[in-house]
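go over whats below:
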Amino acid sequence: MSENSRRLLKFKVVVAGAKNAGKTSLIRRYATGKFHSDLLSTIGVDFETKKVEIDETDILLNIWDFAGEKKFRILLPSYVSGASGALILYDITNKDSLLDLHDWMKVISSVPNSPKTKLLLEAKCDLEDQREVSKEKAQKIFQQYNFQGELIKTSAKTGENVEKAFKMLGRQILENSLKKCPNCGNLYPIEQKFCQYCGRKTQ
């Protein structure tokens, strides 16, 4: 494998959803491999990073975690701008958290250069016996906002599909945001007319 093919690509991603939907727990589980039951609610914005390999490409995810309370939503547009991907969560034990997604999607879609890649996640699937959100209603939301991939059920407590969710996000970002230079073979942002590595025209 050539040195160029192992260049580290960096992407900004955002995680959004209702208060107490499990965003911070999910991110911490992914970043540290551990579940913390005593996490406090996020105040404003929190941040984590994680390096992951997707199809022999190394990428660094800069993960922005947004507080779910409405009073903090004014902060969201400034952080969403320029993000390559978004994970939107709802809590399967709280039907209001699914309805809250309409507000989140309205804010995200109103931002110039909003993420091209958006995935919808079910959180707290270890509490299936307390489910309030039907799969049918969730699928309607999924289709309404053209989420990509598939609706993924996750659990920060057990670790179920946490790695899968972020890997799918990374893979979709690579497909939606980059293309391979026909001259040098490196991946570069799809909107650029010149490869940032070899400097040659690509379009």
About this structure: Strands lie at 9-17, 45-54, 57-66, 85-91, 117-123, 152-153, 178-180, 187-189.
